[in-house]
Amino acid sequence: MTATLVTGVVRGCQDPPPDAPPVTVAADSPLGAKTPEAEEADEKAAGRDEPAAAGGPAGHGGSNVIDLPPLTVRSAEPAKPVAPVPPPSRTPEAAPAPRPTAPAPTPVAAHGELALPPSPARQLAIPAIMIESPVMGLGLDAKGRLTAPPVNNPRLVGWYQKGPAPGEKGTALVVGHRDTKTGPAVFLNLNALKPGDKVNIARADRRTAVFTVDKVRTYKKEEFPDAEVYGHTGRPELRLLTCGGSFDKKAGYSANVVVFAHLTDVRQV
User: Fold this and answer.
1) Which domain holds residue 261?
2) Is beta strand 236-248 parallel, antiparallel or unpaired with respect to 170-175?
3) CATH number of the domain within which 214 lies
4) What is the pLDDT of residue 234?
5) Which of 33-42, 125-134, 163-172, 178-187 has the lowest average pLDDT?
6) What ranges does the record give for the region Disordered, renumbered to this chain (predicted)?
7) What CA–CA distance (Å, rounded) separates 132 from 27?
8) pLDDT exceeds 80 at position 175
9) Whole-angstrom Cα distance, residue 2 to residue 64?
10) Parallel, antiparallel, or unpaired: how do β-strands 157-160 and 131-138 relate?
């Protein structure tokens, strides 16, 4: 991830926030609409390395990467084997006429947790740190690392669109920059979240998945717990990820900030 020194002083994830109010990133387009930058980024987010940004720190894998470990752990529930279909009998009975069915309610997982069908994420809101941001789809680069929104649009966050959707059973992954060459970015104050804070993600199906924060952790690059962050837990969960720790001009940020949250409500828009 490309970073900048906002006040001429290197600020790490654990440092106190600046005197100015927390950064507020507000969407300036209708729900579901994409900015030109987002449309251009969607075309680039399907797994290609990006060239390093001019003046950016070395060791970050390019301007469109937040230097996360490769997704070696599946974030979705493993597919269940399909039972074999028995051959038809010699004298099959006529199939009964289909009966009309009522509209399907919101799916519920076996142990009582809410769960939603797949639907693309469109908008993210975190009231506790005053964030409202459009969401773009992301893929993986050639090394299997999750890409990130373009650095020339620091208000965007990205969702790994080949994994579970927010609210779907599995672990949905959302990433955003902490800062860029031009100043603070959308996830500057991500590490300020506390257990109990809410994260709202509006989806294309006009449902909003409401997540409750369980914990916030900062992990050194070499100690990043892939299975805990990316792995499937048996219920709909969310991970918010960005850079953190100390910053070095050659090596970049030393750590990643991870917010752990789980689905607690569903709202119809």
Assistant:
1) 36-67+118-268
2) parallel
3) 2.40.260.10
4) 92
5) 33-42
6) 1-114
7) 6
8) yes
9) 8
10) parallel
Other C-beta atoms within 10 Å of 243: how many?
31
Query: Over the chain, what is the mean pLDDT?
Result: 74
Residue 16 to residues 182, 188, 197: CA-CA distances in angstroms? 20, 11, 19
Strands 121-126 and 198-203: antiparallel
Q: Looking at the chain, list the stretches that DSSP marks H as alpha helix, in order from N- to C-terminal side.
A: 36-44, 226-230
* Phi-psi label, residue 59: left if phi above 0, alpha if psi -120 to 50, beta otherwise: left
Query: What is the rounded CA–CA span in Å between residue 186 and residue 153?
Result: 9
Burial class (CB in 10 A: 0-12, 13-18, 19+), 154: buried
State the total domains in the chain. Answer: 1
Q: Are 53 and 150 in contact (CB under 8 A)?
A: no
If residue 160 lies in a helix (H) or strand (E), which one and from where to where?
strand 157-160
Residue among 153, 154, 157, 170 at smallest CA distance from 125: 157
Q: What residue ranges in 12-156 does DSSP mark as E strands? A: 121-126, 131-138
44 vs 157, which has greater pLDDT?
Answer: 157
Residue with tokens 């409401």: 210
Domain contains 19: no
